[in-house]
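Hi F.,

I've been meaning to write this up properly since the lab meeting, where we talked about keeping a consistent format for the predictions we share between groups. The idea is simple: the sequence comes first, exactly as it goes in, then the structure tokens exactly as they come out, then a line or two of notes. No screenshots and no reformatting. I'm using this chain as the first example so we have something concrete to point to.
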Amino acid sequence: MKENLATPKSALSLFLSFLLLSASVCFAETSAKDMIKQGDDLLRGDTSSGSYKMTVTTANWTRVLELDAISKDRNKSFIRIKSPVKEAGITTLRIDSNMWNYLPKVERTIKIPPSMMLQSWMGSDFTNDDLVKESSVVNDYTHEIINEETINNEPAYKIKLTPKPEAAVTWGMLIFWVKKDGFMPLREEFYDERGKLIKTLEYTNPKKMSDRVIPTTWTMRSLVKENNSTVIEVIDVTYNKPVKEEVFSLANLKR
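Output, unedited:
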């Protein structure tokens, strides 16, 4: 009888252990996804409106662009180049996964086809796809905390992002590092479908901007183009102020 009584208890114990293990796995998955979302929200807010400087460096030349950028929700952004004179007035509009460029010299609006999403944006190491990926890193990947490390003297979570089977994404894998306290982005790595590291993005120089502290220097480095890098500096940005819907329209590209 004792053996018969012990069997249900053992089975119950195993069942409870299984439930606890399953709950912990689900919690880790949800927690990792939430960290990525909070880090993304930190940089963008519900709305943002700011001025930026972008320095593009190659083995042969360096160029500096100044630009204004406005975003709303997780799916709309508008960028206008202010200088140099040669590029001034070029604008980019993103709505969901759709992108358009306006070229003032020829007075022409061009829709960016899917085949050009990996093309360089304004000659930089940022691609067209980088401008539309904000929502996809939250929704189109599974998220897993794979380590705890120190990045730029900051304790950080290392998170692996794996594309969901049905997701139409560019990268075969992403690795993100976020600060443990507040989940500020610290570093990103971009891998192709074969697992080759293509480029890295580092976030440094945190400062108070508007209602939060954000990294104000974003450095993208190519690992396939020697000596190529792009540095975006946040000059000024305001978060969570009303933005008119008409900003994100094809008509506004030409204004």
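Notes:
Helices lie at 2-44, 128-132, 136-139, 250-253.
Residues 2-44 form the longest helix (43 residues).

If this format works for you, I'll send the rest the same way.

G.
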